[in-house]
Amino acid sequence: MTKRKLKGSIRLFPWELQSMPEYSCSLPSGTTLYKVWKSNTNAFAVGIRCTNCSLTGRSNSHNLPGPMCPKCKQDTLTKFNLPAQWFIGMYVPDSQPGMIGIRWFDVITLEGPRPPNYSPPDWSNYDRWKRDREQEKLVQRREDRQSS
Ligand SMILES: [Zn+2]
Predict the structure, then answer these.
(1) Whose CA is closest to 90, among 20, 12, 15, 37?
(2) pLDDT tens, residue by residue, 125-147
(3) Long-range residue pairs from 113-122, CB within 8 A, at least 24 positions apart, any chain
(4) Neighbouring C-beta atoms of residue 46, cutoff 10 Å
(5) For the whole model, what pTM was predicted?
(6) pLDDT per residue over 69-90, tens digit each?
(7) Rounded to the nearest whole angstrom, what is the distance from the C-alpha of residue 77 to the centroid of ligand 1?
(8) Is the per-residue pLDDT at 2 higher than 50?
């Protein structure tokens, strides 16, 4: 059983987000604590625009919301693809026995050079990933100091 928790944010490089498993219409079956996954809230939505009055919106149905524009009442609605909007889900402990919580995070995209030897981490353990990344940063700082 799952329960939703409050949101925060996770800072990721684009290639890290790319390497994370995607569950946009379901949840990962293995409910391991601190497992993370990405979910595109726009995966099953389309953008809708009226070419007459330029009304713009989104719909969770891929069928247009009726034959007419709700604003100008003209038959001038068109669909467009919405850009992906990512959230990260994480299985977290829950105070109720036998329950596992889900915490949702916004994604903050980091910029920087992609390490040539990048290999995707084990996304089923975010805590370990975070520790590994801190460790990498320490090693990098030490190397930077030695080379200057
Ligand atoms: Zn319209």
Answers:
(1) 37
(2) 888 888 887 877 777 777 778 77
(3) 114/13, 114/15, 118/15, 120/16, 120/19, 120/20, 121/16, 121/19
(4) 18
(5) 0.73
(6) 889 999 998 889 999 999 999 9
(7) 7
(8) no
Distance 80 CA to ligand 1 centre (A): 15
Token look-up 């799952």 returns 2
Show the tokens assigned to 141. Answer: 């700082």
Q: Say how far apart CA 2 and CA 89 lie, in whole Å.
A: 12
- Distance of CA 60 from the midpoint of ligand 1 (Å): 19
Report yes or no: 105 and 87 within 8 Å, Cβ to Cβ: yes
Q: How far is the CA of 69 from the centre of ligand 1 (A)?
A: 5
Whether 82 and 46 have beta carbons less than 8 Å apart is answered as yes
